[in-house]
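Predict structure. Chain length: 383.
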Amino acid sequence: MNEWAARIREGDTRAIARAATGIENRDPRAMEALRELAPCAGRARVVGITGPPGAGKSTLVDALAAAMRGRGKTVAIIAVDPSSRISGGAILGDRIRMQRHHADPGMFIRSMATRGVTGGLARATEDLVRLMDVAGKDYVLIETVGVGQDEVEIAGLAQVTVVTLVPGMGDDVQAIKAGIMEIATVFAINKSDQPGADRVKRELGSMLNLANGAGPKPAIVRTVATTGEGVEELLDAIDAAAASAVEPAAMPHRITIDHLGIAVNGLEAALGFYQDLGLEVAHRETVTSEKVNLAILPAGDSRIELLEPASPDSPIAKYLEKRGPGLHHVALRVPDLDAAVGRLRASGARLLNEPRQGAGGHQYVFIHPASTGGVLLELIQES
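Prediction complete.
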């Protein structure tokens, strides 16, 4: 790692500022330093703060940053400002409002101009976020210029998008609802000490019910950024939303094969083959609800589950009559069975039963082969 990149990684303010300028100007040396530091990325919690002009976004960002510092976290603020018609640079109103953090070594504030780019962000914003991430900041707050129906790019960059609204907007809530319904992770009703805050919250709740149905809904938090009222609650909502966003993202990597279910005419005859392979029976059970006798043989991190019909009318007996002995189903272990079932139902998958208790006490559900590509699939709740 070259010296400049090493200083950035150590959190050196001058090195970070120099790199930020280089990134905005697309300086090849700055871009190379950023590429060199790429393996260090992925730690920061990226939060977008957006909303219509006049919603108090800058004051709210300032208050949120103070709350984060109060919890011992380091913070970078990227304030995307309108471009000056004279110089082409950022109009630094946002950074001027945050001067109380100027001497704080745990804070880094950067204003950048949109330079004519629509969507609420500047062209180099994503690279600046990566820079703050590799520099070790715990939070990166991105304040956009302002939101309209087409200014939704922040949702593709931030883990959590906070849409800031204020009382007295009237029909403005309706005017921007197409955009905010798609991008909001959390709603902040700022200046909520003013008349009309309750109405805004009711309107948001009604719109969210129509848009989301029974699905998860963005949190709605009332704040008064000038006094700090509600800011801690907003930070809690941001952290909860960020943690939730990380866990579905990680879920596919935690799904593992629990076992292969093999239908056999008789357990004793089938067991001889697998025991000759060196596998040992770890568990035998009769599952009354499925009318099946089973034997479980561990095989590495997975298992073989031999299934013998316990009565002539059992599903396994019908399977054997139709197809003969062979692979009956594949079982996957999932971290959240209820969430997986909810997603499958929403996608139209054909579930054969409600989640219920099976062998060994685990919760399970079967999905019809027509939905899985031809194999009966069992999902099991990870214990």
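Summary: The radius of gyration is 28 Å.
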